[in-house]
Task: structure prediction
Amino acid sequence: MTTTIRPAAPQDIAELRQLYFEVYGHGYPVALGSDPTEMHRLITDPHSHWLIARRTDTGELAGSVVVQTDPGNRVGKLVGLAVHPRQRQCGLAGRLTGAVTADALAAGTLDSIHTTVRMVTQAPQRVVARNGYRPLGLLPNAADVSGCETLALFACHAEGVLERRERVTVVPRAVMPLLDAAEESIGIPCAAVLPADATDLDAAPPLPGGGAGTPPGGLLTAPARPATRTPIEVISAPGFVRRRFRELFPDPAGAYSPLRTPNTVLTTPDGAFEIYADLDPAASSCALVAVHPYPAAAARALDSLMTALTRAGADYVETLVPLADTAGLHAFLAAGFVPSASYPAMRRVGDRFHDYVVLSRTDRQIDFRTTAVSPLVQPYLNAYLTTWASTYLPHHEVVL
Result:
């Protein structure tokens, strides 16, 4: 069987919806595979790259893949890779991945592209790895597809980007297993990084954007977990939330969360703070985007935030924190978040690139028994288990 790969067009939408149904059934939690309006927007967006494959003999739609981009932050995400069940075992997934990645990077507007892959088998991990993507970590319980699933995070970078990473010398001790895993898996060096406890915050180097203060999205303190709960109100009004978010954060640098648009705001009855989040009940997940008026205002309410988000349908919550933001990392660690993935050279500031860490927390039981972990990803699983155990098990029960 031979196929032809070309850009998707609006007239392909009906067949694309059928393709995603054939591959995922009704459980696909991404709008680009089911919502015609969102599909049309992406296909006609000049900054998106959507490729399809058709059989040359019958014209039948055989596969699809998309790279969504955030041109302002120069970051892309590969999503929606699907190959029709009758067209598998012929390398089409790899061809689509390679073609859309090359197409997106050739535009010169991206510094990196990342993707999350399911781990029901090792095949998706091998497909992206063969096309230049490096494993960056695990996201346990990150999606509800066919039940609660763990995803693996991979990324590839444009030429020369990794060589211009800003050096970080001090990180919280709990982040060290993750960085050691990155060095073991993909050779990202961290030998010069020293561990820091919550009392060592003054040792942190300057943060992205310059200066010694907390970067956008960071937290200023590392509080102990509170004994009392903070009342949290959840406002799910996407249009209102987007308008207010743009009013409060007119500068994109004020809330760094590429490819995330908040649709929910969490606040206290007295309005002491507003936490903007991208909540996806269909996938049972949520990403924290920004805090107003300043990040430290919500530092002691992170436990209460998790309770509110669980009630709103999110069993998995994640956030992005600069690796250089020692105080911010400590704050989320104190609230039970676990370092899940590292993202080297994610953010460009001037001519230098800054590393970020994905911290996640899930209040659903994690079950790795059916997770297919490739050798490249295994170090991250070991690191996650080590950090999770030190976070949630009494010290006398932890055996290393």
About this structure: The two ends are 51 Å apart (CA to CA). DSSP finds nine helices and 16 strands in the chain.
